[in-house]
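Q: Could you fold this chain for me?
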Amino acid sequence: MAPIPTPPAEPQDSPDGYVGLEAPDAERLARQRGWSAVRSLPPGAIITMEYRVGRLNFEVRDGRVTRAWKG
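A: Sure. Below is the predicted structure, expressed as structure tokens.
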């Protein structure tokens, strides 16, 4: 039986620090800080709720991040 893979550690970075930034700048900064996936979503978007290690989600309204969370 193959061993269960250990996911890489997430960046030691607070999602709250992205709120208020323009979406392209926030995405670029998140990738520089080591997030493997960055997802920008419109307010109220219907999304799946699975947790993905290394992913940072942004809710974007009028080109600015209004909410950010891991997974």
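A (continued): Strands lie at 37-41, 55-61, 64-70.
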